[in-house]
Amino acid sequence: MTTTETTAGGALAIRDDQNQWTPQQLAALGGLGINESVGQSDLDLFLHQAQRTGLDPFAKQIYMVSRYDGRTKKQRWTIQTAIDGYRLIADRTGCYVGSTETWAENGDGLVSATVTVDKMVAGVRCSFSATAHWNEYVQTSRDGKPMLMWARMPHRMLAKCAEALALRKAFPQDLSGMYTAEEMAQDEVEPAEPRRKHATFRDGVRAALADINDATAIYMREWWKQQDIPPLDRDRFTVDHAEMVMAKLKELSESDGSAPTPPHGTVDASDPSDSDTGTAT
Prior knowledge:
Strands 3-4-5 form a three-stranded antiparallel β-sheet. It has a two-stranded antiparallel sheet with strand order 1-2. Strand 4 and strand 5 (124-133) form a beta hairpin. It is an alpha+beta fold. It contains twelve helices and five strands. 41% of the residues lie in helices and 18% in strands. The model is unreliable at 1-7, 189-199, 265-271 and 274-281 (pLDDT under 50). Helix 4 runs parallel beside helix 7 (154-170) and helix 10 (194-210) runs parallel beside helix 12 (239-253). It folds into three domains: 1-81, no CATH class; 95-187, Double Stranded RNA Binding Domain, CATH 3.30.160; 212-281, no CATH class.
């Protein structure tokens, strides 16, 4: 695995032999929401994971998020992997040959999603299946209703959880100990503390923004500024702001497929959730 094949180029390229983040890399991580509250040990671990997995944090294949730990009553930083990062790692083994997905429903709605991952083992095609159950993964509000992407795209969200489970079964050496944002959302139950609640719904918005294309990112960045929405990692960003963002993303996803025109014709292609709009620095 070579650095140029797995990480961003130029000043942001992560070398296999580096033992700390460079100033340019730290500045870019700040734009992704990794701020001064992150301890050195967490930063060191994040660098190690990026090097070990060959995933690019600047392409959102792997990232750190702040979560509320109910046991310690403190915020803690956790490393999460995008489902695209999972697929990339599996594909690099040369043994991954695809996957299939199915859903089970009853009169009350979605019950579970099952994903089967196929892998070549000693020349034989083998299947590894995993099932994710709705009531174990769905992210809900205080009144028990699905939140954000779980309300708008339930099949897709649950399938991501099942796919992550199946990929870990098929490629344990490569993926053990790594989890996706969709899996981790339920790790943070609806909070008593306001900050804990904020961290939960922010994860849903962050996961949704990670899935948008460049054209939509350009549009969302300008729209975010026009709406005067606070950065994602600040307490001023509320559930109402999250609902606004998710509604706009849903509106764009249901359009005719043409690239949205930025409200003021901006050509700024940076992340809509960067330091000027969606995350704190």
